[in-house]
UniProtKB/TrEMBL annotation:
Cofactor(s) annotated in UniProt: pyridoxal 5'-phosphate
Protein origin, superkingdom: Archaea
GO BP: any one term: cysteine biosynthetic process via cystathionine
Protein name according to UniProt: Cystathionine gamma-synthase
Pfam families in the cross-refs: Cys_Met_Meta_PP
GO cellular component: cytoplasm
Keywords: Pyridoxal phosphate
Gene Ontology molecular function, alphabetical: cystathionine gamma-lyase activity; pyridoxal phosphate binding
Source species: Halopenitus persicus
Length: 391
C-alpha cells in the first residue's frame, strides 16, 4: 500500500502487503512467520531482508508498519509488553544521573519501573509533578532534565495533560516529550501530531482489544531515537513482540475504530448514570462536563475513551462488596478488551505501590475503575444499578 488512507482503512489494510512481501500463497492477512532464522544468499549476504527474528520478522514488520501509520510515526517498534516499551524508550533517552519529570498520575507500574531501575540503579532523579499545569512542569525543568514522561488520560484517575502545550515547553528546553497513549489509543489521540517526540502504547489493551496478547509499542518521527530504541531491543534486551502476538494485534487492530466507538458510548452512558447516583461521591470521566479538563479533552482528543473511575460513598469493605455483586462486569486487572471489567485499584491494579504513595496519587480504598466493554449498555447499567442498590 503506497498511498495513505483514512484511519479505519489503514487499520484494516496497512501491513497486509502480500504482493510486496511476495508471499507465494497471496494470503489476504499476514501469515504468522515462526522461523527464527533465514537462509542467506551467500555468507554475509541476506536473501530476502531477514536474518534472525530478534532483529526482524515479517509478521512483526507488518504490525510495525501499521502501528507507524496509525500513530503518525515514521517508525514503530513492537515490544513484548507495554512495560518493555516504556523501559526501552526511557532508557534510550537518558544517561545515568539525569533528571526526569513525570506526571504524578502515571500508571503505578510505570512509577515502579522509574524507581526500581532509573532511580535506584541508574541514579536518575525522578520528580513527579502535577502535569495538568504545563507551567508547573516548566518550573521543574533543570539543566540536566533529560525527559518528560507523560500519560494522558492517566490510569486510574483519568487526568489529562495538555500535550501541545507541554511539547512547546519541551522544545524550548530541548527535552524530549514522551507520552503513554494507552488509554486514548491512536484512534482518539495523536500525541506525535500534537508535538510529542515519542509515543508508547501497551498493545495489551485496546490495540489488541481481546485480552489475549501482551505487547507494547514505541513510535517516533525521530530517526535517531528510533535507532537507539531498536538497538536496545535487538542487542540488549531482546524484548521484541513474538510473531503470534504480532498476528493477534494485527487482527485486533482492524476493529479498533468500531470498538472504540462502542466503548465510548457505553462509558459515557455509565458515567452519566453514576454521576446522578446518591451513593457515588465523584466520577472521573473526561466526557462529563463536570470533569475539570473536559474542554481540553474536547480539544486534543477525538473522543473521551472507554474507562470510567469513581469514588463510592462507602468504606473499603462496602466498595469490595459492590464489586463482588456485579454480574456482567468481571473482576480483573487490565483494560481495553471487549468485555467489561471492574477493578479495585487499592487492592488490585495499584496495590504494588505503597499505601502512602497510593493516597498521595489520589487512589483511595473506595475508588472503583471500570474499563467498559462493548456489550449492550442496558445490561451494563442495570448491573451497576442492582449492585449499588444492595449497598
Ligand atoms: C497506561 C499504561 N501503560 C502501560 C502499561 C503496561 O503495559 P503492559 O501490562 O502491557 O506491560 C499499563 C498496564 O496496565 C497501563 O495501564
Amino acid at each position: 500500500m503506497t498511498e495513505t488512507f483514512e484511519f479505519a482503512t489503514e487499520a484494516v489494510h496497512r501491513g497486509e502487503t502480500t504482493s510486496e512481501q511476495q508471499y507465494l500463497s497471496a494470503d489476504v492477512v499476514s501469515p504468522i512467520h515462526l522461523a527464527t532464522h533465514h537462509e542467506m544468499e551467500a555468507p554475509g549476504e541476506l536473501k530476502n531482508g531477514y536474518k534472525y527474528s530478534r532483529f526482524g520478522n515479517p509478521t512483526r514488520d507488518a504490525l510495525e508498519s501499521r502501528l507507524a501509520h496509525l500513530t503518525g510515526g515514521s517508525e514503530a517498534i513492537a515490544f513484548n509488553s507495554g512495560t518493555a516499551a516504556i523501559t526501552t524508550a526511557a532508557l534510550a533517552l537518558c544517561d545515568p544521573g539525569d533528571h526526569f519529570i513525570a506526571f504524578d498520575g502515571v500508571y503505578g507500574g510505570t512509577r515502579l519501573l522509574l524507581e526500581d531501575l532509573f532511580r535506584d540503579v541508574l541514579d536518575v532523579e525522578v520528580e513527579y509533578v502535577d502535569a495538568r499545569s504545563p507551567e508547573t512542569v516548566e518550573e521543574h525543568v533543570r539543566e540536566d532534565t533529560a525527559l518528560f514522561w507523560m500519560e494522558s488520560p492517566t490510569n486510574p484517575l483519568l487526568k489529562l495533560c495538555d500535550i501541545a502545550e507541554l511539547a512547546g515547553v519541551a522544545d524550548a528546553h530541548e527535552v524530549p516529550l514522551c507520552v503513554d497513549n494507552t488509554f486514548a489509543t491512536p484512534y482518539l489521540q495523536q500525541p506525535l501530531e500534537l508535538g510529542a517526540d515519542v509515543v508508547v502504547h501497551s498493545t495489551t489493551k485496546y490495540l489488541n482489544g481481546h485480552s489475549d496478547s501482551t505487547g507494547g509499542a514505541v513510535a517516533t518521527n525521530d530517526p535517531a531515537i528510533a535507532e537507539r530504541v531498536s538497538t536496545l531491543q535487538e542487542y540488549v534486551f531482546g524484548n521484541a513482540l513474538s510473531p503470534f502476538d504480532a498476528y493477534l494485534v494485527l487482527r485486533g487492530m482492524k476493529t479498533l475504530p468500531l470498538r472504540m466507538e462502542q466503548h465510548e458510548a457505553n462509558a459515557q452512558a455509565i458515567a452519566g448514570f453514576l454521576a446522578d447516583h446518591s451513593k457515588v461521591e465523584e466520577v472521573h470521566y473526561p466526557g462529563l462536563e463536570s470533569h475539570p479538563q473536559h474542554d481540553l479533552a474536547g480539544q486534543q482528543m477525538d473522543g473521551f475513551g472507554g474507562i470510567v473511575s469513581f469514588e463510592l460513598e462507602a468504606s473499603e469493605a462496602e466498595t469490595r462488596a459492590f464489586i463482588e455483586e456485579l454480574e456482567v462486569f468481571t473482576v480483573a486487572v487490565s483494560l481495553g478488551g471487549v468485555e467489561s471489567l471492574v477493578d479495585h485499584p487499592w487492592t488490585m491494579s495499584a496495590s504494588f505501590i505503597s499505601p502512602e504513595e497510593r493516597r498521595a496519587a489520589g487512589v483511595s480504598d473506595s475508588l472503583v475503575r471500570m474499563p467498559v466493554g462493548i456489550e449492550d449498555k442496558t445490561d451494563l447499567i442495570q448491573d451497576v444499578e442492582q449492585s449499588l442498590s444492595r449497598m
